[in-house]
Each structure stands twice: as C-alpha cells, then as structure tokens.
Design brief:
Layout (H helix, E strand, L loop, with lengths): L6 E9 L4 E7 L2 E9 L4 E9 L6 E10 L2 E10 L3 E8 L4 E14 L13 E5 L2 E5 L1 H7 L2 H11 L4 E3 L5 H11 L12 H10 L3 H13 L5 H10 L3 H13 L3 H11 L9 H6 L10
Parallel strand pairs: 9-11
Antiparallel strand pairs: 1-8, 2-3, 3-4, 4-7, 5-6, 5-8, 9-10
Helix pairs in contact: 1-2, 3-4, 4-5, 5-7, 6-7
Length: 284
C-alpha cells in the first residue's frame, strides 16, 4: 500500500497572467514553485533550499499538479539547494496548483571531508579525498571495502584509488558512508548498480535491485535490461512474469524501442528470451 502524503498544499485558481510563484517552508526545507510565462507555453520550476539551521537530509517523493498535468519525482534526495523539476505546460490564465510531498526517510549526513577518531581512513582519487570508517564499510562487503579495511588493519591510513572515476567513487561513498547506511536515489541508482556489480558489493547490488523492483516510473523493459546486464534474477523474474502473464510484453517492447529510437536488433537477446520472444519469432 502506498504511504500517505506527508504534506499536501493547494492553490486554487492561481493567476498566471503575469507569472506566478509561491513558497512552502516545512521540515527544514523551503520549496519554491515558480511559473514563468513564455510565448508559447508556461515554464514551471520546483526548487528546494535547506533552511539555515537544517542539519539533515530528506529522501522524498514529490508531485506537482498543474491543472490536469501531474509531474512526479520519486526517491529524490534533498540535501543542498537544487531544482527538483522543470516542466512546460499550456495552462491558461488561471489554474489549480497542488504540491504533494512524501517523506520516505530523514537522514543524518556525515561530513566526509573531515577526519574523526572513527572515520580515520583517507581515500584519495584524482585530487579528491574522503575520510571513511572502513570497519563499517567492510561490514557491507565487497572487494573494494574489504581491501581498505585490510590496509587499515596493517596500519596504513591512506589509500589511492584508481580504475574508477572520481564521479563513480563519490557516488559509491556518498551512497554507503555519508549516511552510514545504503541510500539509493533516482540520481545515483544507475551508477551504483554498475559499480557495485563491478566490485561485487552484494548488499549494495541487492538494495539497488529492490529499488528497481519498486521503481514503476522506470520502463519495465529498461528494468529488464538492468536485470540481464547485472544478473538481478529476482528483478528479471518479477518483471518478465508480469509482462508475459498480462500479454503486454510485445506492446511494451515496441513502446520502449520507439521511445528510445532503437530497433529490435539492438535489444539484448536475453531480454527477448525472458519475454518468450525467440530468434524465429516474428513481431507484428
């Protein structure tokens, strides 16, 4: 069952004739909705800013409704000033606007730029550095974290990492060490699934798999591609069984190919086999 909304705020008959904006300050963050009139459309921006003394991050779902249009953002992490969504509509001069917010989790971030008695192992990659608790990271598992912990047990306090981009490493460390738990979001899951598969970090990979199983806003064929590429058996079985049993497999496949301007020959053969579409199958 879907969780109830934490916050629901409505503006009836908002006057858009000269543009429109409004702000809501709740839970340590200020959400600003701004509509700018353009020649052929209205541009809507939802931005978020942490308030001055806010010391935590929020993992949230957000829906901005403008008349009959519903713009949805799932599993968004709020920790710094950012634009949550930017969309275009043709709404007329007056419209009902609704903001819905669901707080999934409140998270306490750690500053990985500074050393502490327990966060005393320095990771360095191409000019970037992080101080992490390798005992905790080793409990997550995987080759990379285990190697760091072994180095620390030998008295080594700094490790230079190569073979991975700074962006990938930053994403991995943020998702595992920053909140002292595994945090998967709409912005990091794509990198996390690749890096955790490459370094055999099973607990992270399983968490991303659970995320993808719930992520119905991601096209089912795309989720099948993840399942095939990263050997996510539970995800693959669940998605393929649902598509085959509902007789929508071919329809969804055509839809996905059209959306991505791809042809059948570009699709991974194991995705097709999981949908009971074999090499001699003729698609109409």
């Amino acid at each position: 069952m879907e969780q109830a909304w934490t916050l629901e705020r409505m503006w009836s008959g908002a006057d858009l004739s000269n543009g429109w904006s409004s702000a809501v300050s709740e839970y340590g963050y200020c959400c600003t909705i701004q509509c700018t009139k353009k020649k052929s459309h209205d541009e809507w921006i939802l931005s978020v800013n942490p308030e001055e003394h806010c010391a935590y991050s929020l993992l949230v779902d957000v829906v901005l409704s403008v008349g009959a249009f519903h713009f949805k953002v799932y599993r968004d992490l709020w920790d710094t000033s950012s634009i949550v969504l930017q969309e275009k509509t043709r709404s007329g001069s007056r419209v009902d606007v609704t903001l819905r917010l669901r707080i999934i989790e409140t998270l306490s971030p750690q500053d990985l730029n500074g050393q502490t008695p327990y966060r005393d192992f320095e990771i360095s990659c191409k000019g970037r550095s992080w101080f992490v608790d390798v005992t905790y990271l080793a409990s997550i598992g995987g080759k990379l974290f285990t190697e760091w912990n072994e180095q620390r047990s030998k008295g080594i306090k700094k490790c230079w990492v190569d073979g991975i981009s700074t962006y990938e490493l930053d994403c991995l460390i943020d998702a595992t060490a920053k909140y002292r738990q595994i945090v998967v979001t709409r912005m990091n899951y794509d990198v996390l699934v690749s890096v955790s598969f490459r370094y055999n970090i099973g607990s992270v990979l399983r968490t991303v798999e659970s995320f993808l199983m719930d992520a119905e806003w991601i096209h089912p064929i795309r989720r099948l591609e993840y399942a095939v590429c990263y050997k996510l058996a539970r995800l693959g079985d669940t998605i393929s069984r649902k598509l085959v049993s509902s007789n929508t497999a071919i329809e969804k496949l055509h839809e996905y190919l059209a959306e991505n301007d791809e042809t059948l020959i570009q699709m991974h053969p194991d995705v097709l086999i999981s949908l009971n579409i074999h090499p001699d199958h003729v698609l109409s």
